[in-house]
């Protein structure tokens, strides 16, 4: 035989032929008392109550088959007091629920059948039972809880609520649950407890109650699912007050610590470390620990740290399940807890704890759940896994398992484990007593597997054991493979950048080409309109002998020619600017006088529009260095725009002053650095149409036009900006839409900003300087050709009726160029009635007012262009029949396609020959006449598409015809009925029907009736008199008359004539 003590203090005993035995020093921590089948032993293991009286006798109450038993702690034996049906002084039942002391020598015992006052000396009892008609008796025989306070015995019953027995007067007061919230919360009472303040606390199956003895009122504390600070459950199993006067309440779902000040509760559950949530009993020891029995074991709780130490049957407990409110703390500090397998008795101070953390070892390593040998093919192990600090795996070894164990020989099944794979996860995996860890599909890299364990008493070996695991990457994930990828990626980026730059370059080239194309289209428009205005006067001069007419025509030619020369010069100057071939030759002169001279040249044109012209200067003279030619072009451009876009009766102010750029907040973006130089400020201010915020952003960009129609070349302000910057100056605009604009030019004073070759070598004499009039003459052309740009003037005045013959076709001319509009009007007025409009919006309003027979429209116009106007007209059922002729400078194929797609009937490019335009007009009007004639001439109903020129008219005419046919038997069906069904006004319906058929609304209905009748006549199914009524005619005679008027023969003659065919 041999002996050995291990690190935990356990004794190992080796025998000769009986194996190894272990003596555990911590075994039998809890004394377990249960039925030993002896007369002096327990008679039933199902303990329901335990109580120690003032004489230190311990009393045990068990369930059915047991007894009220006095426990001898020294001999561990029992004296039993049972129910004897033949003895009225025996205890009333062997099912003991609760015990409490009345006075020394006497106990109150609650049973399943009555209340007993037990005399210890004699063993005899006086029993109390409910008497049905006696309100002074107890009202339930099932007594679950007892508490003696002074002369009052508080009795908790099943279904009988709270009974309070006055032991002096032998009177019982009953407190039952009622709908009143001040009553007790339930009639099933499980526990009654008095605290240090003499408060009576009652635990029921439906909440905790505080009983106010003076008033008989109860305060309820119940669970509120919406309030996390309420008690955790309403089924109260035990109540305990600790040494710190804290009240602890055990429920079937957690332990509750009550805050008596705020009436709130802090809850502890299995999430906090409890072995189970069903709290059976609570006791406190001398060290401040709470001992808590549950349905899943016993626990020691440290209220200061909030930690639990749990015990199970493996530690010697009677069972993991303890009965509710079955506990007792003796005078010497021992604790008793009962359950269904007897009870445990122990002293808390005698419970020792294992202070040594367990040692841990790795025991096995598996791949794909197969054991890995040492130095076998494909094995990463060169020695046993317990001796390895590091292993290396290939990328294919993706499923690995590591086994481990902690050396705990006392209760190995209570050892707890946790592991983590550093580099893969951030939190420990707490896995109970599981002794393996498996990982799958770990990415290539370096990881550290760590495992730790706790002993039986929850002390963790935090250092644990670790293993470095290297997982090699596949070939395509090695460093040199990534280097190759990086190099390839860089090459791809370079290629992408190359192609991106190439694409950007091509895109910019395309954008430039589009801008150039747009510019040349606009320039073409600007050229073609004057050319159109030249061709017609030339023909007039050649064909006229009237000297006055010839002179007027020559003046028109002169204006148009000057406009063309100005445009050509502007293009040439723009080209020179792009090539850097526009030199600055500055002279020193009085810029105030120079500006005033230019201002006076424009004054006459401004006054022709009734514009108030004002010149202002802060100084009578300001000497400045500037290029006279370039400055003249800058000021000409600004004054021309101001006059052009200011309506009649407006105001234009040109002001000159000295300024400092640093004083102007609006110019802060121009001040690249602290500029100290002085400037001369030239400000052109008008009350014209103004600019929107979006227009201001782009106003100085090349090819940008402020008009939505993109009329104009869009280079004037961009060219002016270039000329200002050539002077080292600045230009900006301040504007508000509808209120006017202010253009500000700042030119630096002095000549320090000029290079030597930019200063003129000759003296400048303003008296001898000749101003160029190209801009002025171009403006005269624009003013003569353009209507008022005021926002209040977007239509021409109603023209005087040019021809009193209202039977002549009405033509609407929509053209923003006033001279061209006048020219067209003069040429067409002898053969047509003429109406005029200055843009698409004005034209649309005139169409809806006059319903012309034909429309001639320019395409490029402000506010609404001709394409949009054509679309509006051709998609409106009221106007889609009106022929539309588009005049434009845009003569590319795609421009014509766009025009025809919108429904235009003719597309004529400028400059055009008037005789061709007249011929086209005649053809379109004649075509409409032929369609009307065809409709009138037929004697039968024909498809609408044969007499219409577009789908909308076809659908409209088919619908009209169908409506009339559906109502044709109704002789009262009238134009008014047709108007209601169509939802169209009388005038619009009349004009539409007349434009398509040449009939009025009434004649249209009658015409369909007659054609319908003619078809019925040809069928020869009905008599003529029947047909007249079928076609909606009241009178046969009237039918015969109008049939003869329509077809030139009577209905009968019509039948005979066609029957022979």
Automatic annotation (TrEMBL):
PANTHER family: HYBRID SIGNAL TRANSDUCTION HISTIDINE KINASE C (PTHR43547:SF2), TWO-COMPONENT HISTIDINE KINASE (PTHR43547). Its EC number is 2.7.13.3. It is an enzyme of class 2 (transferase). It catalyses: ATP + protein L-histidine = ADP + protein N-phospho-L-histidine. It holds the Pfam family Reg_prop. The modification 4-aspartylphosphate is found at residue 858. This is histidine kinase.
């Amino acid at each position: 035989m041999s002996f050995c003590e291990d690190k935990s203090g356990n004794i190992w005993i080796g025998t000769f032929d009986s194996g190894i035995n272990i003596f555990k020093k911590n075994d039998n921590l809890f004394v377990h008392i249960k039925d030993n089948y002896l007369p002096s032993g327990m008679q039933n293991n199902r303990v329901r109550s335990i109580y120690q009286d003032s004489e230190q006798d311990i009393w045990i109450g068990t369930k059915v088959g047991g007894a009220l038993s006095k426990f001898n702690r020294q001999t561990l034996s029992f004296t039993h007091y049972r129910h004897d049906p033949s003895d009225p002084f025996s205890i009333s039942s062997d099912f003991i629920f609760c015990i409490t002391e009345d006075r020394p020598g006497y106990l109150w015992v609650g049973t399943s059948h009555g209340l007993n006052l037990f005399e210890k000396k004699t063993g005899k009892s006086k029993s109390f039972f409910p008497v049905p008609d006696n309100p002074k008796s107890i009202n339930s025989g099932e007594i679950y809880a007892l508490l003696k306070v002074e002369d009052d015995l508080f009795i908790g019953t099943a279904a009988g609520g709270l009974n309070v027995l006055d032991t002096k007067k032998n009177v019982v007061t009953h407190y039952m649950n009622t709908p009143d919230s001040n009553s007790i919360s339930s009639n099933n009472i499980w526990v009654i407890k008095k605290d240090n303040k003499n408060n009576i606390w009652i635990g029921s199956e439906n909440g905790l109650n505080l009983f106010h003895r003076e008033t008989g009122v109860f305060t309820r504390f119940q669970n509120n699912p919406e309030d996390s600070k309420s008690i955790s459950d309403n089924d109260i199993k035990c109540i305990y007050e600790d040494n710190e006067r804290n009240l602890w309440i055990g429920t079937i779902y957690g332990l509750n610590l009550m805050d008596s000040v705020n009436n709130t509760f802090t809850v502890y559950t299995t999430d906090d470390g409890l072995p189970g949530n069903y709290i059976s009993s609570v006791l406190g020891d001398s060290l401040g620990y709470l001992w808590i029995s549950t349905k899943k074991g016993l626990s020691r709780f440290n209220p200061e740290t909030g930690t639990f130490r749990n015990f199970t049957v493996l530690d010697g407990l009677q069972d993991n399940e303890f009965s509710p409110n079955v506990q007792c703390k003796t005078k010497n500090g021992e604790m008793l807890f009962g359950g269904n397998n007897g009870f445990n008795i122990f002293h808390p101070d005698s419970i020792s704890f294992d202070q040594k953390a367990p040692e841990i070892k790795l025991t096995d390593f598996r791949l794909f759940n197969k054991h890995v040998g040492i130095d076998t093919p494909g094995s990463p192990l060169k020695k046993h896994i317990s001796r390895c600090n590091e292993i290396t795996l290939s990328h294919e070894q993706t499923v690995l398992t590591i086994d481990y164990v902690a050396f705990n020989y006392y209760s190995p099944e209570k050892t707890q484990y946790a592991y983590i794979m550093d580099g893969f996860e951030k939190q420990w995996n707490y896995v109970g007593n599981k002794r393996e860890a498996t990982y799958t599909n770990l990415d290539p890299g370096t990881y550290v597997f760590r495992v730790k364990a706790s002993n039986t008493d929850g002390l963790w070996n935090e250092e644990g054991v670790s293993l470095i695991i290297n997982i090699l990457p596949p070939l395509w994930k090695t460093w040199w493979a990534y280097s190759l990828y990086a190099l390839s990626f860089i090459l791809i980026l370079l290629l992408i950048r190359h192609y991106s730059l190439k694409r950007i370059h091509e895109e910019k080239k395309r954008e430039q080409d589009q801008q150039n194309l747009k510019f040349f289209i606009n320039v073409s428009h600007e050229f073609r309109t004057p050319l159109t205005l030249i061709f017609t006067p030339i023909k007039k001069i050649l064909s006229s002998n009237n000297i006055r007419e010839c002179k007027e025509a020559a003046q028109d030619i002169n204006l148009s020619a000057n406009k063309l020369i100005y445009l050509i010069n502007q293009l040439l100057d723009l080209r020179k600017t792009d090539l850097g071939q526009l030199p600055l030759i500055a002279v020193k002169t009085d810029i105030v006088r120079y500006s005033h001279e230019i201002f006076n040249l424009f004054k006459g044109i401004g006054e022709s529009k009734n514009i108030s012209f004002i010149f202002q200067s802060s100084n009578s003279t300001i000497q400045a260095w500037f290029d006279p030619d370039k400055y003249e072009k800058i000021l000409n451009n600004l004054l021309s725009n101001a006059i052009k876009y200011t309506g009649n009766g407006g105001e234009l102010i040109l002001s000159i002053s000295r300024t400092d750029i640093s004083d102007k907040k609006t110019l802060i973006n121009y001040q690249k650095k602290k500029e100290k130089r002085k400037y001369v400020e030239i400000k052109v201010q008008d009350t014209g149409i103004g600019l929107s915020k979006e227009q201001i952003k782009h106003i100085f960009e090349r090819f940008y036009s402020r008009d939505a129609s993109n009329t104009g070349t869009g280079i004037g302000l961009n060219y002016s900006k270039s000329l200002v910057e050539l002077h080292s100056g600045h230009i900006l605009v301040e504007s508000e839409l509808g209120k006017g604009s202010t253009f500000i030019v700042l030119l630096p004073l002095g000549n320090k900003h000029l290079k030597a070759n930019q200063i003129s070598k000759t003296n400048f004499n303003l008296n001898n300087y000749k101003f160029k009039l190209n801009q002025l003459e171009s403006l005269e052309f624009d003013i003569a050709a353009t209507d008022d740009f005021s926002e209040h003037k977007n239509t021409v005045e109603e023209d005087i009726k040019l021809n009193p013959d209202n039977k002549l076709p009405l033509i609407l001319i929509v053209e923003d160029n006033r001279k061209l509009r006048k020219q067209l009007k003069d040429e067409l007025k002898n053969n047509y009635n003429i109406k005029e409009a200055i843009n698409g919006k004005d034209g649309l309003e005139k169409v809806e007012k006059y319903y012309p027979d034909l429309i001639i429209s320019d395409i490029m116009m402000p506010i609404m262009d001709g394409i949009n106007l054509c679309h509006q007209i051709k998609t409106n059922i009221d106007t889609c029949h009106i022929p539309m002729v588009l005049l434009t400078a845009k003569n590319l194929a795609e421009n014509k396609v766009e025009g025809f797609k919108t429904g235009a009937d003719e597309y004529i490019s400028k400059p055009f020959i008037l005789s061709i335009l007249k011929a086209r007009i005649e053809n379109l009007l004649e075509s409409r006449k032929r369609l009307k004639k065809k409709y009138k001439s037929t004697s039968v109903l024909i498809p609408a598409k044969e007499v219409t020129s577009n789908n909308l008219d076809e659908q409209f005419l088919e619908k009209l015809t169908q409506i009339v046919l559906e109502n044709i038997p109704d002789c009262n069906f009238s134009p008014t009925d047709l108007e209601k069904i169509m939802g169209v006004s009388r005038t619009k319906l009349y004009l539409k029907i007349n434009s398509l058929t040449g009939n009025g609304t009434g004649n249209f209905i009658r015409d369909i009736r007659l054609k319908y009748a003619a078809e019925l006549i040809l069928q020869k199914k009905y008599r003529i008199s029947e047909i007249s009524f079928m076609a909606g005619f009241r009178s046969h005679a009237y039918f015969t008359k109008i049939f003869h008027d329509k077809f030139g023969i009577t209905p009968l003659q019509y039948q005979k004539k066609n029957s022979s065919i």
